[in-house]
């Protein structure tokens, strides 16, 4: 009986220790800094409490490492976990922005795949821009980063629409919420391709074909006064748009292109 009672006491003591350990864990917060994963109490937190990494881990083929410590690569998971942090600071409960990073090889491959985009101003200065048709050069100049819009009013009281990709001539009294189809993004000239940033899947080589790419937004014509309206998605506007819209007079580029500034 004595032995049985002693065994019960030892069992109860072990359970009490387990409950105390669980309570201790529950009272602590889990550090979310890269490579830490320690639990801490905020009252015990200080500026040198945590040794951690500053950037996310990468996993490429059989190798593992931290993007902030690219010279230290491990093959085994335990070796990876033992790579010491490169920074010291306070523990934190704020989750990191990125969970997984890129290995050095993946970063190189990504840079090689990424196209070098040419701005409109850069296009104008390139050989392609200098040798382009007058309309293309004028369009590039009018939509460049330094272009200054000005209201263009005709003698009959109508205006030229300044929405991107429109250039139609319109009168204020005939302007309706479905009168204009335009682009929400900006033109991009990449190598021989021309496209709108909002419609990157519709790339054209010929400038005239590029100018004919239908806009992705529908809304009011804009004469350049005040702020342009964002309009609505063209696909959602099809069913509700009036079916007999008046034909707009499109203003063609002159000898110097579309000079808006």
TrEMBL record:
Q: Which residues form the CHORD domain?
A: 31-91, 161-221
Q: Does the keyword Zinc apply?
A: yes
* Chain segments annotated as transmembrane: none
Query: What molecular function does GO assign, one term?
Result: metal ion binding
What InterPro entries does the record point to? CHORD_dom, CHRD1
Q: Which PROSITE patterns match?
A: CHORD
Fetch the Gene3D superfamilies from UniProt. Answer: 4.10.1130.20
Instruction: Indicate what this protein is called per its UniProt record.
Output: CHORD domain-containing protein
Species annotation: Octactis speculum
Higher taxonomy? Eukaryota, Sar, Stramenopiles, Ochrophyta, Dictyochophyceae
